[in-house]
Design goal:
It contains 13 helices and 11 strands. The chain has 329 residues and is of the alpha/beta class. The protein has 2 domains: 162 residues, Bordetella uptake gene, domain 1 (D-Maltodextrin-Binding Protein, domain 2, 3-Layer(aba) Sandwich), CATH 3.40.190; 116 residues, 3-Layer(aba) Sandwich (D-Maltodextrin-Binding Protein, domain 2).
């Protein structure tokens, strides 16, 4: 064997060895995901309904993913500040969004700097929840009909609280006004969902439509009176409370959803990994219990199903906003 042949064989052997080492090494980039902490943006204040769900459910991703999952509240403009932040975030799976229905509804309320249909990669719609029509315990209104009669008797005297413009509480309040015959009731938007509940408990406003999980304990403690739920069916936790369809109008059905999203363009393998881990968590009774106890309906959708829901609600809530003339101030 001459020197040139020996060198060629050595070089070939070295190339095979190097290729084998490459195959043995873990893939870089997203195949190692996650290899750093994950930030989940909640676009509403601490203590809001969406924040409560994020901290009880989404924070559970930390253990199976092996990295901290940090919930950050980026508040302002009825959620638009947080939504836009994630829409413009790197597409690497390290900045996520846990959002309520407002993500799809807000474009119908005014100019936004994101597109709910194009700027996000839906991961999972985790749950749905109805709003609960509540009044102070000393209110003369024992039924929805009583409340409407009070509003008709004193135009402009009643007010209703919401956790901010454009949310389910705002839409529900405008729906009762429209369906009751264009009632003259003043809308008082607060900065947080918790504040709207406190305003009704303190008899500062006549009624509100908070998410059930925020008002349920106060109702059970006698600090609020529940008149109706906005979902299609009665709640198993308050079976004697009628739906708005039963109490007022068969078409009065409005509920909210919560879901996890990433910026559009996030690699499918990252989306699929997050979905698989979150689905596994939602099969755990310990993880489901706080949601069920808060009157959530567990959904655990696929990414495609969540995308279809966003598309549908983008249209439905936009149409509703135009019909009711609901706007973000």
């Amino acid at each position: 064997m001459n020197l040139l042949t020996a060198f060629a064989r050595t070089a070939a052997h070295t190339q095979l060895l190097f290729a084998g080492l490459l195959l043995a090494l873990p893939l870089t980039g997203h195949a190692q995901y996650p290899d750093q902490p994950i930030k989940v943006i909640v676009a509403f204040p601490a203590g809001s309904a969406v924040d409560v769900v994020a901290r009880s459910l989404i924070s559970r991703l930390a253990a199976p993913l092996g990295q901290p999952v940090v919930i950050e509240n980026k508040v302002g403009a009825s959620g638009n500040i947080g939504f836009e932040l994630v829409a413009r975030a790197p597409k690497d799976g390290y900045t996520l969004l846990f959002a309520p229905t407002q993500l799809a509804a807000n474009p119908g309320l005014g100019k936004v700097n994101y597109d709910p249909l194009k700027d996000f990669a839906p991961i999972m719609l985790t749950s749905r929840i109805s709003a609960l029509l509540v009044v102070p315990p000393e209110s003369p209104a024992k039924t929805v009909a009583d409340l409407i009669a009070m509003a008709k008797a004193k135009p402009g005297a009643l007010s209703y609280a919401s956790g901010g413009n454009g949310g389910i509480g705002h839409f529900s309040g405008e729906l009762i006004k429209a369906n009751g015959g264009n009632l003259d009731i003043v809308h008082i938007p607060y900065k947080s969902a918790a504040e709207q509940v406190q305003s009704v408990m303190a008899n500062q406003t006549a009624f509100a439509y908070p998410a059930m999980q925020l008002a349920l304990q106060q109702v059970k403690a006698g600090k609020l009176r529940a008149l109706a739920v906005t979902g299609a069916n009665r709640s198993a936790l308050l079976p004697m409370v009628p739906t708005m369809s039963e109490a007022m109008n068969p078409g009065f059905v409005l509920d909210a959803w919560y879901g996890l999203l990433a910026p559009a363009g996030t690699p499918p393998e990252v989306v699929n990994k997050l979905h698989a881990e979150l689905a596994r968590i939602l099969r755990d009774p310990a993880a489901r219990a706080p949601l069920v106890d808060g009157s959530h309906e567990i959904v655990a959708s696929t990414p495609a199903e969540f995308a279809a829901t966003i598309q549908k609600d983008f249209r439905v809530w936009g149409d509703l906003a135009r019909k009711l003339d609901v706007k973000v101030d």
